[in-house]
């Protein structure tokens, strides 16, 4: 039996649509696997009642198939589905790392990323790697068709998860098909600033780099109360605020001592609209861990 904990992740981080991702120190999925003649899946934990156990419909089955390694798989969900926190990616990442260990396949962490991305193809129609890469490798990641560049970073974060459901598939339909050159220039500047911030462990630069005028405004409209929550987080000291992944989670970067106040400001603003919300005081963290 091999056990792996794989973390939630936040993709995009504003200016890095489909490219940037960060592992979060919490929450996480825990997966136990045993090699078997055929793949079977049991689901437990947060939102598991909404996730199919059929290997043809569960990302875990897609990853086992991609690695050609059938297994009995038990998944304890810490990351609820359709959250914007890489729920499907956490399971996919954990299964890829666990199967590699159980079958002694000897793949590097970077080599496992495309296999785990097959799980994302199953649920969103595209094998984007921006969530599975940080969940497998940890830290901040830049995922491009050429591969993944990983940086260990230390940035305090607050993530708010309202009781709203937005599927990645739906949130991808509202992404604009084109952008003005002036918007692209702004986005490149923001993205470069964010990368510099990750290298320097500088929450102010990371926050500046989280602004985005292309994809985020369209996505924000899907989240009831987004503008008010963002404003409240900034007033409480956040250096930057954006939609996490495809939403509805909202992520804020900040100095360590501001996390508590920002979490409570975001929770209050959602509460004013009668939306139940959970806040995680977290940080850029480690990738999948074997036990
Ligand atoms: N093991 C799994 N864990 C979570 N979701 C799964 C799993 N297998 C299949 N799914 C399906 O994937 C969908 C959730 O994935 P989706 O990409 O929409 O959300 P997310 O991973 O939380 O978001 P994001 O990628 O924006 O961070 C749900 O329809 C769910 O049923
Ligand atoms: N980059 C993806 C992440 C969600 O899986 C998106 O924002 O649609």
Description:
The protein has 291 residues and is α+β, with helices and mostly antiparallel strands. The protein has 2 domains: 150 residues, Ribosomal Protein S5, domain 2 (2-Layer Sandwich); 128 residues, GHMP kinase, C-terminal domain (Alpha-Beta Plaits, 2-Layer Sandwich). Helices cover 37% and strands 25% of the residues. It is built from 10 helices and 11 strands. Strands 1, 2, 3, 4, 5, 6 and 11 form a 7-stranded mixed sheet that branches. Helix 6 packs antiparallel against helix 7. Bound molecules: adenosine-5'-triphosphate (ATP) and L-homoserine.
- Any idea of the CATH class of the largest domain? Alpha Beta
Number of helices: 10
Major sheet size, sense and barrel closure: 7 strands, mixed
Distance between the termini: 10 Å
Radius of gyration: 18 Å
User: How many domains, in number, for the residues?
Assistant: 2
Indicate the CATH topology of the largest domain.
Ribosomal Protein S5, domain 2
CATH structural architecture of the largest domain = 2-Layer Sandwich
User: Which structural class do you get from the secondary structure elements?
Assistant: alpha+beta
- The proportion of residues in beta strands is 25-35%
Low-confidence stretches are none
Helix content: 25-40%
Domain GHMP kinase C-terminal: 198-268
Pathway: Amino-acid biosynthesis; L-threonine biosynthesis; L-threonine from L-aspartate: step 4/5
Domain GHMP kinase N-terminal: 60-139
Protein name: Homoserine kinase
